[in-house]
Amino acid sequence: MAKRKGKIEKLSKQPLALVLIQIRFSPFMNIKDYIPQIQEKLLPLGFVNCRENPSLEVRITPNGPVATDSKQWVFSSFDGYENVIIDSKQLTYQTADYDIFENYYARYQQICDILVSSAPTFETTVLIQRLGLRYVDRIIPLDDSDSIDSYISDGFCVNQASVFGSAKKICTISQAGEVNIFEDKKGAIVFRITQGEKGLFLPPDLMPNPPKMKKEIKPDWIIGLIDTDHSYTAIGPEKYNRDFLENMFYGMHDNSHDLFMSIVSEEGKKKWK
C-alpha cells in the first residue's frame, strides 16, 4: 500500500465534477491488435460501450511536421459516467462518479492490469513518459445572494476587470509550481480558477468526449471551476512498475488535495461539509 502523508479531509458535499488519471508511455504501435481482448475484459467492469475515434497525430521531424492517421478507443460505462481511453501512447480513465481516491485508484489499477494481461509485451517494452492526475471542481452558487468568490480563500479570487461591467466573460487565474511526489521524484502542479460565462461546464480542453456529468449545468448558469492538474514527466528511462505507479499517484493525489483545501475558504468548506 502506498505511503500517505496523513489523514485526508473529505467534504460530504464535494463539488467534484470530473477526475482524470492518465499514463502516457512510449509508442506501443500494435495496441490495435489487443483491443478485442481488452474490450472483453472490460465488460465485467461495466464498460459496455466502445467506439473508435479517428485522430491525427503530428510529429516534428528534421524535415518539418509530419501528420499521420491514428486511432483511439473509448470504452464507456452503461450509465455514461465513466470513460476509458486507450491509444498507442496513453491509458486514461475519467469519471464523474467519484467517492474516495482509494476506490478510484483501485479501479484504474484493474484497468491497467487488463491492458498488461491482454498485451503480453506491453509491460516489458514500454517506457513511462508522463503521469497525470486532474481534478475539476465546480462552484455553483446556492442562490442569487451566494457568490463564487465566497468559496475561494483570499489571494485566490478572480478579479473581473471593471471595463466589462456586468457583462462577465471567462476570467481565469493560474499558477504553477514544482512539488515533491514520492522519494526523489518531483512533478508539476498547476491550478486554474475560472469564473465562466454561461454554458461553461468543464475546462475547454476537456469538452471533447467527456463522460456524462452527475449534475447537469443549465445554459444560463454562471459557475466557477477549480481545475487542479498534477503531472510527472520522466527524465530518464522509467519502466512500467505497478508499485511505483501506485506510490506516485497516491503522492499526486495528496498534493492535489492539500492544494485544493488551501484554495477553498473556510466559508466554502462549511457549505460543502
Describe the structure in your own words.
The chain is α+β, with helices and mostly antiparallel strands and 273 residues long. Helix content is 22%, strand content 34%. The chain has five helices and nine strands; from the N terminus they run E-H-E-E-E-E-H-H-E-E-E-E-H-H. A nine-stranded antiparallel sheet has the order 2-3-4-5-1-6-9-8-7. Helix 1 packs antiparallel against helix 2 (101-118).
End-to-end Cα distance: 28 Å
Look at the structure and give the mean pLDDT. Answer: 88
* Low-pLDDT residue spans: none
Number of domains: 1
Numbering strands along the chain, what is their spatial order in the largest sheet?
2-3-4-5-1-6-9-8-7
- Radius of gyration equals 20 Å
What is the succession of H and E elements?
EHEEEEHHEEEEHH
Annotation, overall tally of beta strands: 9
How would you sum up the major sheet?
Answer: 9 strands, antiparallel
**Which percent band covers the strand fraction?**
25-35%
Shape call:
globular
Oligomer type: single chain
Distinct helical segment count: 5
Question: Features of this protein?
Answer:
273 residues, alpha+beta, 5 helices, 34% strand
Fold topology:
Layout: E1 16-25, H1 35-42, E2 49-61, E3 64-76, E4 82-87, E5 90-95, H2 101-118, H3 122-125, E6 128-139, E7 171-182, E8 185-195, E9 224-233, H4 242-263, H5 266-272
Antiparallel strand pairs: 1-5, 1-6, 2-3, 3-4, 4-5, 6-9, 7-8, 8-9
Helix pairs in contact: 1-2
